[in-house]
Amino acid sequence: MSEVLLPLFLRLAGRRVLVVGGGRVAAGKVFGLLEAGAQVRVVAPEVRVEILASGAAVERRPFTPHDLDGVWLVVAAATREVNRDVAAAAEARRIFANAVDDPQSASAFAAGVVRRGEVTLAVSTAGRAPALAGLLREALAALLPDELPQWVATAERLRAQQRREGVPMEVRRPLLLLALERLYHPAPRSEAERAESVGVRGEAA
């Protein structure tokens, strides 16, 4: 039986994250973490210019286990040997580690991500086939409607209403589907509403 992973979305804003490595892959990780609001520190002997300009704290030196003190998450994006050292030190401290291109050492896996407003979809192959995860991400991005932020707003309003009215959980999803359908196919007005509309237009004329 293959290993089962638990998908999670991390709230990293204001939390310390270590990135070990200063190359192209590390740069991509740094920008993603900064976008999530993390306090990013980069440790590597050589660091690309874009990382230096990113706003992340940078220390140009080799990794030591003490770099993990106070860290919530570590991303190892260096050589295979360094990544394994980082992952082992993180395991000893019970810190989740994303070890790039080394799924056997990693305890956390990055995902192909699609964002539409407040909606985030993530695709992972448990580190076994990151290129495939990228292809699936692109396919999902092409399929998702541009109106997803409107879907979220509709679902949020409906949820608040249903909680006030005590609507049973088992009927909430069908009602949400109807509400989303009305975004594209508004319900026909009643006879009374149509008559009222005609009367208003007549008075205005």
Task: Give me the secondary-structure topology.
Blueprint (H helix, E strand, L loop, with lengths): L15 E5 L3 H12 L3 E5 L5 H4 L4 E3 L13 E4 L3 H13 L3 E4 L12 E5 L2 E5 L6 H14 L4 H18 L3 H16 L6 H14 L1
Parallel strand pairs: 1-2, 1-4, 2-3, 4-5
Antiparallel strand pairs: 6-7
Describe this structure in words.
With about 200 residues, the protein is α/β, with parallel strands linked by helices. Among the domains are: about 15-110, NAD(P)-binding Rossmann-like Domain (Rossmann fold); about 145-185. The chain has seven helices and seven strands, in the order E-H-E-H-E-E-H-E-E-E-H-H-H-H. The chain has helices at about 25-35, 50, 80-90, 130-145, 150-165, 170-185, 190-205, and strands at about 15-20, 40-45, 55-60, 75, 95-100, 110-115, 120-125. The strands form two sheets. The chain has a five-stranded parallel beta sheet with strand order 3-2-1-4-5, with helices on both faces. A hairpin with a 2-residue loop joins strand 6 and strand 7. The longest helix has 18 residues, at about 150-165. The termini are far apart.
Shape: elongated
Assign the CATH superfamily of the domain at 16-110: NAD(P)-binding Rossmann-like Domain
End-to-end Cα distance: 74 Å
Structural class: alpha/beta
How many helices?
A: 7
What is this structure, in a nutshell?
With 205 residues, the chain is an alpha/beta fold.
